[in-house]
Design brief:
Helix content: over 70%
Radius of gyration: 25 Å
Low-confidence stretches: 527-545
Number of helices: 26
Order of helices and strands: HHEHHEHHHHHHHHHHHHHHHHHHHHEEHH
Distance between the termini: 46 Å
Length: about 625
């Protein structure tokens, strides 16, 4: 039964991908998307009763999976080289050719006959949490994509639907991500890493316009750089420990300073995948893709692969200069991403920079590398995945309805989209308010950094700025009229249910944070006194959880705010701003220079002169590059 569960989580999405591409009947594709989502959800939940566990990928009896992966590696790299030639991109071709040369030398000349991991799959609580996120949140995104892609293609007026290819790529992505977080063989990890790289390229360039193709190429070359760093680290680790078994490598620990160099390369690959500065451009470019792609890359799949790698190998660099360097890089990205998010009015860009920032916080926790810091990192992974997926899907629905993703255009959204307006507002609140999990995770992260003044300052400043851009967006949405004059929102069941399910999940997960903490995190912290070492923000002096009193208070305050807003809205008359006597006859306009009629515009101040992209990006990238060089230098 166990082997069937593990293999289903990896192979079922791949089988569904083939069905989605081969069978062009819409109703059949929708059935398989729904059925696969349900099966993946059930299998991932069933896996909870088995961890920790080791197993092997089984395709057919007598088939050597390692040989399949070996062949697939070269096919995959060859395909990427062909793409590079097609787009005349020397950087991608060079990076992939280098990988192919290193891989060929490694597999045919360096590796011994017993190089492979005895158990090709391994699932502990960390892997289980990632599997749950990928399988459940990823499936919800795929289901949301059914109505979204129909509207998307209607808007673009495409002659021939690309949905079969699109859904194929979504499910290949899910299968590859499950394979990546369950892999116990470094070469399998590398293979799935490269599959996600190719899928992200194809998904970002899905629409085929010039901007999409340009951004997909950027994603491909940056992630190919990450793939080269990952492969180089794998070869170097094998040269030291003579095994590709991840758990065996971790159990051996750091044998002298030499092990830190390849581990630093693995972390560098994780940085690229997690779009840490200065590698953020590929993830920002992914915003041009259809919203399900953005949600999948930012919440449950692609970027989580990066932080997973950094956390998975954290025991190897604990209490080293490399660990401190990782913490500094992550903390700097957290602050810089938050600052750049504050300068954006584009909803998707706010979400993108917020994602980069939060991933930086997770990586900072991995670098701090104490029990409480790792706890904070895992909690942040869980809550970020759900809340960020919800926000991306909401922005996608809003954009299709009002034709804009600018948060300034979302004023009065309640009148147009009352259901979505309330859901996205609550989604934003889950990012910043107690008792929701993101705040708890950030609080614990800052608490765990108390031993390093510089890092704690970066985290505290980043957290403060985070409140600014989320509160600003929530303020615009909550500034809508709640007088009952809203239009009925036409939202299909398959478009509405994913939003409702993710919102309920974000709330329930926050309320069950103590259970997640005690059931999934403490068991992995063997050899410690968890309730004394990891009490953090979850326990008071009596040892009991303070989460539920916070929950009751928050619910009372929120209900009071809604009732008060409704009461005030019914008595409030909306009038145009007074223009000091120069207003024109038409409301909201005034007589400007040369007696021309000018529309009065009111908006938030975005501090572009201080934190605009053009102002900060160059400096941030340079500083982040220096920090990464220092981080790698700390490994020597």
């Amino acid at each position: 039964m166990l082997n069937q569960l593990l293999n289903t989580l990896i192979l079922l999405p791949l089988a569904t991908a083939l069905v989605c591409y081969a069978i062009r009947i819409t109703i059949v594709r929708q059935f398989f998307v729904l059925a696969t989502g349900i099966i993946l959800t059930v299998c991932s939940l069933m896996l909870m009763s088995y961890v920790p566990v080791t197993s092997a990928i089984r395709v057919f009896s007598g088939v050597d999976v390692n040989l399949i992966v070996q062949i697939a590696d070269f096919v995959l790299l060859g395909a990427i080289i062909l793409i590079a030639i097609q787009h005349k991109n020397l950087i991608i071709a060079t990076l992939c050719a280098a990988q192919m040369a290193i891989l060929g030398y490694f597999e045919f000349y360096m590796m011994g006959p017993d190089h492979v991991a005895k158990a090709t799959l391994f699932c502990d609580n960390l892997s289980l949490i990632l599997v749950l996120i990928i399988s459940i949140v990823g499936s919800i995104i795929c289901i949301y994509a059914i109505p979204y892609m129909k509207n998307h293609e209607n808007h673009l007026k495409v002659d021939k639907s690309k949905q079969p290819r699109f859904f194929m790529l979504l499910f290949v992505f899910l299968g590859a991500m499950n394979g990546l977080v369950l892999a116990n063989d470094l070469l399998h990890l590398y293979f799935f890493f490269e599959v996600t790289t190719l899928c992200s390229f194809l998904l970002i360039g899905h629409d085929g316009d010039e901007v999409s193709v340009k951004n997909s190429i950027t994603a491909l070359w940056m992630n190919s750089l990450g793939g080269l760093a990952l492969l180089a680290g794998i070869v170097a680790i094998y040269n030291i420990d003579h095994t590709l078994d991840i758990q065996k490598i971790i159990s051996l620990g750091g044998v002298g300073p030499g092990i830190l160099i390849p581990v630093g390369l693995l972390c560098l690959a994780g940085f690229v995948k997690a779009a840490q500065f200065p590698f953020q451009k590929w993830l920002l470019g992914a915003m041009v893709a259809p919203t399900p792609t953005s949600a999948l890359l930012h919440s449950s799949t692609m970027v989580k692969a990066g932080v997973y790698i950094v956390i998975r190998f954290s025991p190897l660099y604990q209490d080293t200069l490399l660990s401190t360097g990782i913490a500094l890089c992550g903390a700097f990205t957290f602050l810089a991403g938050a600052a750049l998010a504050m300068g954006q009015s584009n909803g998707k860009k706010v979400l993108a920079y917020s994602t980069i920032s939060n991933l930086g916080l997770i990586i900072a926790c991995a670098g701090i590398n104490t029990e409480s810091a790792i706890t904070a990192a895992i909690l942040l992974i869980i809550f970020h995945a759900v809340s960020k997926a919800l926000l991306f899907l909401c922005v996608g629905s809003i954009e299709q309805h009002i034709g804009s993703r600018d948060i300034e255009d979302m004023r009065g959204l309640y009148g147009e989209m009352p259901k979505t307006s309330i859901i996205i507002t609550l989604g934003i609140l889950t990012m910043i308010l107690p008792p929701f999990g993101m705040l708890l995770g950030k609080w614990m992260a800052i608490e765990s950094a108390s031993g390093n003044l510089f890092i704690i300052l970066l985290l505290a400043l980043g957290s403060a700025i985070t409140v600014v851009y989320w509160a600003r967006w929530a303020g615009i949405l909550m500034g809508s009229s709640f007088d009952g004059n809203s239009k009925p929102e036409k939202l299909s069941l398959m478009a509405f249910m994913p939003l409702a399910v993710l919102l309920i999940a974000a709330i329930l997960l926050s309320f069950t944070a103590p259970l997640i903490y005690s059931s999934f995190i403490i068991p992995d912290m063997s050899g410690t006194e968890p309730f004394s070492v990891l009490n953090g923000i979850f326990a008071n002096q009596s040892g009991s959880f303070v989460l539920y009193p916070l929950s009751v208070i928050s619910m009372i305050v929120f209900l009071f705010a809604i009732l008060r807003s409704r009461s005030v809205s019914k008595k409030t008359k909306v009038v145009a701003p007074y223009m000091s006597g120069i207003q024109a006859e038409k409301a909201g306009t005034y007589i400007g220079p040369m007696d021309k009629i000018v529309s009065a515009i009111q908006s938030n101040y975005y501090l572009n002169a201080f934190v605009g992209e053009n102002r900060l990006t160059g400096f941030v990238n340079a500083a982040a590059g220096i920090l990464i060089v220092l981080m790698i230098g700390g490994a020597f």
